[in-house]
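pipeline/complex-builder :: batch 7 item 3
reading input block
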Amino acid sequence: MLNTLKTVFTLIAVLGLLSGCSSSKKKQEAAPAAAPVVETPVSQGINVDALKAAADAAGNVFYFEFDSFVLTEQTRAALLAHAEYLKAAPRSLRLEGHADERGSREYNMALGEKRAAAVKDFLASQGVSSAVEVVSFGEEQPAEKGHAEGSWSKNRRVELK
Amino acid sequence: MRLVIAVFLSWITLSAHALLTVEITKGSAKPTPIAVVPFGNTNGLPEDIQQIVSADLDRSGLFQTIPKGEMLSQPTTQKEVYFRDWQRLKVSYVVIGSMSTSPDGRYALHFELYDVLSSRQVFSGNTVGQASQLRDIAHAVSDAVFEKITGIPGIFSTKMVYVEDLGYAGPGRYRLVFADIDGARERVLQASKLPILSPVWSHRGDKIAYVSFETTRPAIYIMDLATGRKTQMTNFPGLNGAPAFSPDDTRLAMCLSKDGNPEIYVMNIATRQLQRVTDHFGIDHEPSFSADGRSVLFTSSRGGSPQIYQVDLASGRPERVTFDGEYNARPRITPDGKSIVMVHRDKGIFHIASQDLKTGDMRILTETLLDESPSVAPNGAMLLYATQQQGKGVLGAVSMDAGVKFTMPSRQGDVREPAWSPFLK
C-alpha cells in the first residue's frame, strides 16, 4: 500500500515536472497562500532539485518476484524518476543486486546480477548515459534476516547507490 | 596383514574445541553393534582415542558402539579377548589395541579387529604419528575398521572446508574454515568483512578454489593448502563465480559475466587462457566437470526455470539432464561418475536430490526446508550439505541411500557451503 502511494506520488511529481516546468512561476503568483518559495537552480529549463526530490521519493531499492529479474510496474515508475534526475545531474552509479536465501547460492549470485543488469538496461533505455557498475551479492547480504516471505520479499532487490 | 599409516601434517591447529558438534538425527535401521575397547597405555593423552573411534563409527550410521561401562572385560591384547563376554553383549565386532611411544617421541598404536560370531581375528594394523596427530591416529583406526567390515573405504581421515558467517558487519565477518570431517581442529584459512563463497577442492586435495569479495567485487582465488599462499585467478567485470577443478586439476571451470551475461568458461590454470563454453541469454552458472573431464554439467535457466544441462567441451553442444521438478541447480558428480547430486525444489521446498545419469531416476535425499550446496564424500557413500536449524545455518550429512542423517550445529555463526575433500595421501 505504502509502495503504491509512493509510486503514485512519484508519477505525479514526474508528470508535474514534465508538463509544468515553464508555468510553475505563474501558479505560484496565483496562489498567495503558498509558502515562500526558495529559488532553485534551473538548468536548461529543468528544476534539478525537484527532479532530485522525485528521485528521492521514488526510493533507491527496487524489489523483484522469486526467481525473476523482470522489473515490476512500480520499479519502472520509480526508475523513470531516477532517469530524469540522472539525465539532468549525471553521476556514476553502483547497482547492487541481491536475492533471497532460497535456492542455490551461486545461482542466486547470477540472479542478483540479472536484476541489477535489468535496472541498468532500463536506465540506459531512458537515455541515462552515466557510468554504471553492477555488482551482485546474491543471497550473501540480506536486508532482513527472517526465513519467510515477509523477509524474502525485502531481500530480492536492487539497491541504487 | 599389517597396515602402517604414516601421517604427515605440517600445520598445527589453533583451537582445541570444535566449532561444530555432531547430532545424529537418523541412523541405519539395523546398525552393527561394535565394541571399541579403551586402548592400552592411552591414559593421560590429550585426546581420547577410544572416544574418537567410537564417535566416528557411530556417526557413519552403520555401527552402534556399546558404552565402556557395559563391557565385561577390557582386553588390550589378543590373549585377553574372551569371545563369550562379547557374545553375551550381542556385539558383532570388537576393536582392541595398545599405544607405544618411540624414543623420538612418536606414537604408534597397534590395533586389532575381531569377529565375535566366528571368534577370529579379522585384521591387525599399526598407525603412527606425532603427539599433535593423535586424532589422525584414531581416524586411521576408524578407516581401517570401517573398510574391513563394510568393504567401503572409510572417510574419517578426510577434511572439509566450509564458509562461516558470524553475522555482524565488520572485519572477519566471513570466514573460510578448514576442519576435520568430524568438525574438529578447525582452522580459519581466510577471513573478510565481505562475502566469501563457493569453496571447492582440487582433486589432489592440495588446493582450494573460492570466491572472495575482498576487493568489493567478486574474484576467484586459488589457495595452496601447504603454504597458505593464495593466487587471484580472475578479476573480470561482473560475476566471477563457482570455480570447479577439472579431474586432472589443470583447468578451472567458472561462471563469468564479462561478455554481458552469466556464461560458463573453462580456464587453463597455467596459461590463464579462457575457453567460452556456453552462449545463451539466460543464466548459465555453477559448472562442474564430468568424471572424464570432457564435459561440464551446469545450471541454466534457458528452458524458463533452472535445470541442469551437460555440455560437451569439444562440440559445445548442451543437452538437458534434469526434467523432474521446476528447479534443479548446482550439480555435483559422484566419484563413480554415474550420478549427480543437486538442489531440487519440490512443492516450494528445497531438497537435496540425486539422479542416475543413465536412467534419469531422481531420488530426494533430504526433507528439510532450505537445503543447498551438496558435496559428496570421496567414497561416494554420503554427502554434506547446508541447511537450517532454528533459523541458523548448519551443515547436514546424509547417506546416498537416505538411510543415515546427521547435522553438525555450529557454536558460533551460520555455517554453509561445505566442500568434502578427496582422499588425502
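note: Residues 11-32 of chain A have pLDDT under 50 and may be disordered.
queue -> next item
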